[in-house]
Amino acid sequence: MHVIRTAFVLLALVAAPAFAQSDPILDTLAALPGSIEDVRIVGSWNQGGQSGVYRVLVSRSGGDLVTARMFLQWIAYDDNGGTKVTNTVEIQEFAQLNVDIVDFSSSSDGSPLTINIQTLDPNGNADKNYVLTVTSPTQHTLAPSSN
After folding, report:
1. Considering the entire predicted model, what is its pTM?
2. Which of 69, 78, 87, 124 sees the fewest Cβ atoms within 10 Å?
3. Given a cut of 90, is residue 103 above it in pLDDT?
């Protein structure tokens, strides 16, 4: 019995460091709110000697009447292959529309970034398509699509 208990204690001591080690990416993902339901890379950018990608995040809330919020991030690459989020903005016009984002597609061959967005009005009144044009973290326009 003593041998079994000693073996169990030794196993616990050997395994403890593996359980105690933290994974920063896993920890960050675990902290991501459940309302974030869509995350996509939608294009690349170059500016002032830096380059990176655009990332869109869509958050949804509501039960039977789902509405969405859209966020855009600028992710920069560093010389060592790492990345850093340099800007995050909310496209606040969506909060005012009270619609869900059904799908979106993008095109980015430099500047500006263009995102075509399909929406669904949870009340069934005003399903529309929009075009989001982003020129910088401080400048964007959202307009109904002409299609």
Report:
1. 0.80
2. 124
3. yes
